[in-house]
Amino acid sequence: MKAKLRRLAAWLWREWVRPITLAAAIVFPLKSALADWNYVPSGSMEPSIRPGELVLVNKLAYDLKVPFTTRHLAEWGDPARGDVVVLYSPADGERLVKRVVGLPGDTVEMRDERLWINGRALDYLPAGAPDIAGAEPGAIVATELLGARPHAIKVLPTKPALRTFGPVRVPAGQYFVLGDNRDNSNDSRYIGFIERRRIIGRATAVIASLDLEHYGKPRLNRFFGSIP
């Protein structure tokens, strides 16, 4: 009986445990340092990212980190205005997906939902459709011209929110981030500036999208789409 158990244990090790362990030893460090994915359960980045979407994170967009840490081995770029980034919240360490609007040294302000950068108000264009405006009563969608990165934002006039903020100056080595769903986002208005080391990478595309309000029905038109 003991001999059979030993043979079974040896077979399990050879056929299952060792291959899986070797694969994990290769894949997990690569996932940690090169590319990753992030599940978005909330609507804080609507309409750019919908609730129930899995987004691809390019961890090599700005730097190379020691696997499983935030320590930088090398840096070749910094987040640009308009980039959608994945970061660790300074409030509780939770991973968040937000848009960079303020760079180090910038002055950022909001006046009645309108974003101001370095004393200049951004331009907005009417945009939107029922499928992206969301189910909230009175939701409004517009295109925000943030430098060279125009993108859609959503506001919810009937929802209590912080619509006027600042002005604040972004310290060196830190960033100011906002959610595209301006009245339903836990961002720099509430959690403060984001240190460079807390930025994990840039969210570049939607891998998969499930409609959480319809029992996880796939939104096939959203699969493999780029994030503006």
Characterization of this structure:
- This protein has 228 residues and is an alpha+beta fold.
- The protein has helices at 2-33, 130-133, 188-191; strands spanning 35-40, 53-58, 63-65, 72-75, 84-88, 95-102, 107-111, 114-117, 120-121, 123-126, 140-145, 151-155, 165-169, 174-178, 194-195, 199-211, 217-218, 225-226.
- The protein is globular.
- The protein starts with a helix and ends with a strand.
- The model is unreliable at 21-33 (pLDDT under 50).
Helix and strand content put the structural class at alpha+beta
What is the residue-mean pLDDT, rounded to a whole number?
A: 84
If you compute it from the alpha carbons, what radius of gyration comes out, rounded to the nearest whole angstrom? 21 Å
Instruction: Count the beta strands.
Output: 18
Tell me, briefly, the overall form. Answer: globular
What fraction of the residues are assigned to beta strands by DSSP? 35-45%
* Low-confidence runs of at least 5 consecutive residues: 21-33
Sheet with most strands? 9 strands, antiparallel
Number of helices: 3
Termini gap: 62 Å
Q: What is the helical fraction, as a range of percent? A: 10-25%
Q: Spell the H/E element sequence.
A: HEEEEEEEEEEHEEEEHEEEE
Outline of the structure:
This protein is α+β, with helices and mostly antiparallel strands. 18% of the residues lie in helices and 38% in strands.
